[in-house]
Amino acid sequence: MKLESTLPNRAAFLYSAPVVDVVLLMLIFFLLGSNFILKSGISVEVPFSESSLPPIERSHIITLAPGENLRIYFNEDRVTLDELSEKLEENATTDKVHQVIIRADKSAAFGSVIEISNIVLRHGYDLVYATSSEEVN
Q: How many domains is the chain built from?
């Protein structure tokens, strides 16, 4: 005696639901994951260094852009030296971030980099200089 199933054959639907779930989860992961990477939007060519530090999770970024005039950006907002000092002072009391990364272009004046470094250190932040791990000729 041959037994037959009385259930309708819907196997394709049962196997496609997990695939759709996985695809949607991966899409959400990649869309949200890219927002948590902290990068400055100002393009600079940082100098080469053979030394390296472990990645820093949370920090403020100060960028010195190349050009005739000194252009300073604090977390992508253009500031002057006085405004930079004010912003660092404001954030020193309210934020839990106590690290600053300085991304200075190779052509930025060394005196300007040191001047900004002194302002950062004066406000009690830890200081890191962004460098490239690959030498560009």
A: 1
